[in-house]
């Protein structure tokens, strides 16, 4: 079955380049602007480019060849983006892995993705050394920083070299990279089991950077005289939170996750200052918004729930924040409204994307005269992107009905690394099958109603957990919730809710009252059959609810 994609609702022309042109362009457009801050350590955009070229030269001299895979086994640190950029400038591909995972899992990933080098941190270097496969010929250890301190007496293990040794090389001068070459392998979130390596080409990465940043940057894509890309500002079009060369963002999302990494790289394109955060601490996060004049925040629902529960949300000066995005997982409309109340000068929006689309598929329409997307919607398709809803046979569903979200655009990845069968199932004739369910409203805004695998079928009726979670989230005594299906003979599955109350010692009858609260607002077949009160929900390192773990608890 082959379908030709419709024309995107809006288009954006940008130079056909690889990521090296983005890095070079930022270094020339914003040479003295601080690009990265980690405690008292800072690097300007020109210094990031210089350091990355030195790392690239060092990697080349240690045998890393174009096309090799280099694993980044790092926490959030100023050296993460420097290492990433250096790997790419060397012509290799980066593969960011979770440094907190067990050594056996790391070894499996290094073997499965064919890594030839690893860049790690003193706190995690012993695991990296133990996990080395015969193909790993180089292990590099970065220095500790404020965001990523090292344990006491954590010296580099035998058989490793210091990152400073790479930085001591002269900058690499190389030909421009091929946009069709591999930039990085983005590991999927692992909510369904073992992570897969998504092949993000330079072409995908650069397209995603432009598609995600251009609608709110106040500039047009351009090439400088040396071939670097940048935004040429357009007078009078700069929205709050996105000022070219003046924006400030906090990097608290794990940089080993696509949303954290690609979001930081989009800041590079716009000349932003990015404050590298280590462990997320709500009060410190709010303090840094006030201290550094943060203009833009991206976070997952778990982050916003924590901020809204923090005392500092009512006392800190948050007026610098002009733009807030929630993504990576669904968020209820009550929480979105509370975010807007806490940050009154900010535009608050929910976006939708996934690793297989680099990061972005939809966003709120920022064009002049466009009506705001309704709260709870993830907006319209990004520039140059087509989104369709299809049934199980891959055919478009009738207007008004829910269906699986399919997408087509330049940010759609090149498939899964070394996994042809999984690639063939998910990437079909240039389209991405997301596995998510959605519906369009009468204005064309997309509403994500859940994962196909999470849909509950009760007596033949489709029950969407997101709808029930939305209702639960509107109850004043609910902090977070997740709904899953439990097998029930004779009816298929029944909805079971796991709820984190706002107070640690809720009334004994809260579970019963919540079930009744939902029952008053849904059809009989959608009613929640049981509410379980819990202290917390199981989350992935990127803040997504592990519903497979909740289903396991019901087994």
Overview features:
single chain; 555 residues; alpha/beta; Rossmann fold; GMP Synthetase, Chain A, domain 3; five-stranded antiparallel β-sheet; globular
Q: Secondary-structure blueprint of this entry?
A:
Layout: H1 19-29, E1 34-38, E2 41-44, H2 45-61, E3 69-73, H3 79-89, E4 93-96, H4 103-112, E5 115-120, H5 125-131, E6 138-141, E7 161-162, H6 163-167, E8 182-187, E9 197-201, H7 202-213, E10 219-223, E11 229-233, E12 248-251, H8 258-269, E13 273-276, H9 282-292, E14 296-299, H10 301-308, E15 323-326, H11 333-342, E16 347-350, E17 362-363, E18 380-381, E19 386-390, E20 403-408, H12 420-426, E21 427-428, E22 431-440, E23 446-451, E24 456-458, E25 461-463, H13 465-473, E26 478-488, E27 492-501, H14 510-519, E28 530-533, H15 547-554
Parallel strand pairs: 1-13, 3-4, 3-5, 4-8, 5-6, 6-7, 12-13, 14-15, 15-16, 27-28
Antiparallel strand pairs: 1-2, 8-9, 10-11, 17-18, 19-20, 20-22, 21-22, 22-23, 24-25, 26-27
């Amino acid at each position: 079955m082959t379908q030709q994609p419709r024309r995107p609702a809006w288009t954006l022309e940008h130079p056909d380049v690889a990521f090296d042109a983005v890095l070079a362009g930022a270094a020339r457009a914003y040479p003295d602007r601080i690009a990265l801050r980690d405690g008292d350590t800072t690097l300007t955009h020109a210094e990031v480019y210089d350091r990355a070229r030195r790392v690239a030269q060092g990697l080349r001299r240690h045998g890393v060849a174009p096309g090799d895979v280099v694993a980044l086994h790092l926490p959030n640190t100023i050296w993460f983006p420097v290492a990433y950029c250096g790997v790419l400038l060397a012509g290799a591909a980066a593969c960011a892995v979770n440094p907190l995972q067990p050594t056996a899992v790391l070894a499996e990933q290094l073997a499965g993705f064919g890594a030839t080098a690893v860049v790690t941190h003193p706190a995690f270097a012993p695991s990296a050394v133990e996990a080395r496969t015969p193909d790993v010929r180089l292990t590099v250890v970065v220095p500790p920083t404020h965001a990523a301190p090292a344990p006491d007496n954590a010296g580099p293990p035998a058989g490793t070299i210091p990152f400073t040794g790479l930085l001591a090389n002269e900058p690499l001068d190389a030909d421009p990279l091929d946009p069709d070459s591999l930039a990085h392998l983005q590991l999927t979130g692992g909510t369904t089991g073992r992570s897969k390596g998504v092949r993000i080409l330079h072409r995908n990465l650069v397209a995603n950077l432009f598609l995600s940043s251009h609608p709110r940057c106040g500039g047009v894509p351009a090439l400088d005289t040396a071939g670097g890309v940048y935004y040429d500002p357009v007078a009078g079009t700069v929205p709050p939170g996105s000022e070219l060369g003046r924006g400030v963002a906090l990097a608290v999302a794990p940089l080993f996750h696509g949303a954290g990494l690609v979001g930081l790289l989009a800041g590079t394109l716009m000349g932003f200052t990015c404050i590298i955060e280590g462990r997320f601490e709500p009060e410190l996060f709010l303090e840094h918004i006030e201290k550094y004049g943060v203009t833009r925040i991206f976070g997952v629902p778990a982050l916003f729930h924590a901020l809204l529960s923090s005392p500092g949300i009512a006392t800190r000066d948050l007026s610098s924040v002009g733009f807030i995005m929630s993504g990576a997982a669904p968020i209820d409309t009550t929480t979105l409204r509370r975010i807007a109340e806490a940050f009154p000068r900010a535009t608050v929006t929910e976006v939708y994307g996934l690793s297989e689309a680099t990061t972005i598929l939809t966003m709120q329409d920022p064009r002049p005269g466009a009506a705001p997307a309704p709260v709870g919607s993830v907006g319209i398709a990004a520039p140059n992107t087509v989104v369709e809803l299809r049934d199980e046979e891959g055919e478009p569903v009738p207007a008004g009905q829910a269906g699986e979200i399919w997408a087509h655009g330049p940010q759609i990845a090149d498939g899964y690394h070394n996994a042809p069968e999984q690639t063939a199932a998910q990437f079909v004739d240039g389209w991405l099958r997301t596995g998510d369910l959605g519906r369009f409203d009468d204005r064309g805004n997309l509403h994500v109603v859940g994962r196909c695998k999470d849909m509950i079928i009760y007596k033949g009726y489709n029950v969407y957990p997101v709808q029930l979670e939305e209702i639960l989230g509107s109850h004043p005594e609910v902090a977070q919730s997740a709904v899953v299906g439990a097998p029930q003979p004779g009816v298929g599955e029944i909805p079971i809710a796991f709820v984190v109350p706002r107070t640690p010692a809720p009334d004994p009858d809260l579970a019963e009252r919540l079930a009744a609260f939902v029952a008053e607002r849904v059809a009989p077949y959608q009613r929640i059959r049981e509410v379980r009160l819990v202290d917390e929900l199981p989350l992935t390192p990127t803040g997504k609810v592990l519903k497979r773990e909740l289903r396991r608890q019901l087994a």
